[in-house]
Amino acid sequence: MTTRAPFLMTVMALMLTACAMALGGPPAPPVHNLADQPFACELLARPTGRGTELEGRLDARDAFAGSYELRVRGPGVAVDQAGELSLAAGQSALLGQASLSGDLSSLDARLTVTGAGRTVTCPLRQP
User: Fold this and answer.
1) pLDDT tens digits, residue range 51-99?
2) Which residues form the signal peptide (predicted)?
3) How far apart are CA 113 and CA 71, in angstroms?
4) Checking DSSP bridges between strand 39-47 and strand 124-125, what pairing results, if any?
5) CATH code for the domain defined by 39-125
């Protein structure tokens, strides 16, 4: 029995590794082409006298239910805003706002929307 124990342990370790690899694959990549999505979204960046104002927006073309995450990083800045949303066709929603010191070039700002099994990275726009 003592000669089988190392063999069984090896087999069990291999099986657990295979299961972990099958279940723990990387997440689906963000979709950047919004033309075929049930919504249009953007992260609008406006310069202000004191820095930058960010505003996430979503316009539903069709009924949509999902979630969003606004994430901003920079020197001395860490903003995380997230929530659930449900919109009827034709409705719009404000998905998050942040007023930050500094200009946009010093910030890493990203708005992602998830729904219907897909994650979309919304484009960053400057007026």
Assistant:
1) 999 999 999 999 999 999 999 999 989 999 999 999 999 999 999 999 9
2) 1-20
3) 12
4) parallel
5) 2.60.40.2420
